[in-house]
Amino acid sequence: MQDFTGETAKMELRVLGLLGKTLNGPWMKRFYMSAEKEINFVEGIRVVKKVQDNLEVAANSPECLLTADVDLFGNLLIVDSAIFELRDGVAGENRVFPLC
Q1: In this structure, how many other beta carbons lie within 10 angstroms of the beta carbon of residue 10?
Q2: Confidence band of 52 (pLDDT split at 50, 70, 90)
């Protein structure tokens, strides 16, 4: 447990939390749903391609995750207290970012 008490480890966990809110959570909602809302194969490929493109943008400008109003699927991101805390913990004093 001592490995998770350092500042670097805390920052890495916050970044993983942001990825969870912008990628993993929406992925689970989109692809692991009931049979009535099942996505077909061709539409699934389109969705994955869009997410892949958005991931490339995020990889080139990761600071955009701190101000994004949409997730990596292009859906409106509801900025709840968890996202606010994660963003605040990652941004720290550096709260000015270029427009993304």
Answers
A1: 13
A2: very high
Stated pTM of the model: 0.77
Per-residue pLDDT at 15 exceeds 60: yes
- Over residues 61-81, the pLDDT tens digits come to 888 888 889 999 999 998 899
* Cα distance between the two ends of the chain: 36
Q: Is 72 exposed, middle or buried (0-12, 13-18, 19+ CB in 10 A)?
A: buried
The rounded distance, in Å, linking the Cα atoms of 50 and 34 is 22
Domains of the chain: which residue ranges? 7-91
CA–CA distance, 25 with 18 (Å, rounded to integer): 10
Give residue for tokens 């869009």: 50
Q: Evaluate whether 66 touches 59 at the Cβ level (below 8 Å).
A: no
Residues 73 and 51: beta-carbon distance below 8 Å: yes
